[in-house]
Every structure is written in C-alpha cells, then in structure tokens.
Design goal:
Largest sheet: 10 strands, antiparallel
Oligomer: single chain
Number of strands: 10
Number of helices: 8
C-alpha cells in the first residue's frame, strides 16, 4: 500500500508576516505586541517544528502500520500568519500510499482549505481533540475532504483520522497546536484496532522528535491564561466560524484525551 514520501515542491511563503487577524485594529499597542509574538512563533516554528515533518513521515513509512495508509499529510495555518488568508494548507511533503490520492494531496497544498470549510478537522484546531471519521461519504460535499476527494478513492477509504501536533518543549514559543496530521486509512485491513495502532505509532515517533499529541504540562497548567494557545488565536479569532458540522449518525467520534497519554 505504502508508496513513500512525495514532495510536490515549493515552500510556504518566507515573506515578512503582517499582523495577525484582530478584532481591534485601532489598538496599535496590542497589534504591535501580537506582531512581535507572532514573529517569535514563526521563527521557532520554522527552526524547531517544520524540520521535523520529513523525519516524522519517514519514520512512519518504516512501520508496519504504514501498510494501512492511503495518505498521511500535515496541515498548518501558515497562510494565516504569513499571507493574512483565512485558510489552512497542507505541507508539500506527504506519505502517499496510493497514486489515486496524488492529485488530492497536490490540491490540498496548492489551494488550501478555507476556514469555514474545514469539516471535522476544525474541532482539532479548536480544542485539540482527535477526530475519527468513520464514513467519509456521509460528510457534506461542500466541506473538506469531500469537496475534493476523487470518487474512485472514496470506496478505498476506511477511517480518516485528524490528530493535533504540539511542541513538547516546556515554555516553547510555539505554544498551542502547531499542526494537524491527517491519516486516510485503507478499508482493506485486517487490523481491527487500526486507529488505535496508528495513534500509538505516531505518538511514539512524535515523542522521539520532541513533538506531542497533547499539550505540555506548562500549557495545561496555564489553561486560564491568555497565553495558552496564543498561536491558535490568530486562527480562532471571534470572526472565525469553523464548519465542523457532521451530518449523519455513527460517523465521527472524538477520542478521549486520556487515550493520548
């Protein structure tokens, strides 16, 4: 099933970022402080987070669990920070298990996803809960991923899993959710615990790379502080309405955070 890493080329914009979205453009001091904080976040993200994506995918490719993968790709909100666009974008590198999803991945990197069309992935960005979609065909065709999944791929898909990525370093400038991993799993598997297997496998790989599926203790202890998930506030501002509606029953579930420890 696994075909290996695929790089589509191109880097996220390296231009100087503008101010993050804010509800009070007249508050210049707040804007300046937010811009400085965002700049620190970007420097740390590019130096300490992004370089770990390829090793993560390479390590995953070498595991037995990878045989059940149709696609693994990584989403970030870099367009919000660098371009001022309210959208997510997949990284140009992915782990591709079938050529059927090659163009799908390229579209996710090239076109991104508007924040009001992210589907169940929005819940991961909002609160860090793992999302497991069991019947993708029942999702809204106006939102991700059904708005771009090729018809021939739908019959191949078992579950789609969305997982949060945190920097495991204590008091890191890159607080909050720094990325979301999407796993599209094959329907043809003999592993009845494939979702748990994939989460466990990824958790071990991420731990070795200094990443985590749950927030570091310093962030959890500061849960009542505005510092918690400060980076995510650039995306989840008051003007953003995530499209997380999931029509149908028995189709998507949230995995308890206790499962991630």
């Amino acid at each position: 099933m696994q075909e290996g890493l695929l790089a589509n080329g191109g880097e996220a914009s390296a231009s100087t970022p503008g101010a993050p979205p804010t509800n009070s453009s007249t508050d210049s001091m707040a804007c300046e402080s937010g811009s400085q904080s965002m700049s620190g976040f970007l420097v740390s993200w590019r130096a300490n987070i992004r370089p770990k994506f390829v090793p993560l995918l390479s390590s995953l490719a070498g595991t037995p669990a990878a045989r059940n993968l149709l696609l693994c790709q990584i989403y970030t909100y870099l367009p919000v920070l660098t371009l001022g666009k309210q959208m997510l974008q997949s990284e140009d590198v992915c782990l591709l298990g079938t050529q059927t999803l090659d163009e799908f991945h390229k579209a996710c990197h090239r076109d991104g996803i508007a924040l009001d069309r992210v589907g169940p992935m929005g819940k991961v960005w909002e609160n860090g809960d793992v999302q497991v979609v069991q019947y993708a065909s029942n999702l809204s065709k106006n939102a991700y991923p059904m708005d771009r999944l090729p018809m021939e791929a739908i019959a191949m898909i078992g579950e789609i899993v969305f997982l949060p990525v945190y920097d495991a370093a204590i008091n890191s400038p890159t607080q909050g959710i720094v990325a979301v991993i999407e796993l599209i799993l094959s329907r043809n598997t003999n592993d009845g615990m494939i979702v748990a297997t994939m989460i466990s496998t990824l958790g071990e790989i991420m731990q070795e790379l200094g990443l985590s599926l749950s927030a570091p203790m310093s962030e959890k202890q500061g849960n009542n502080s505005n510092e918690l998930n400060k980076s995510n506030s650039y995306v989840c501002n008051n003007n953003t309405e995530w499209n997380t509606s999931i029509p149908g029953k028995g189709m998507s579930r949230t995995v308890s955070k206790q499962f991630l420890h």
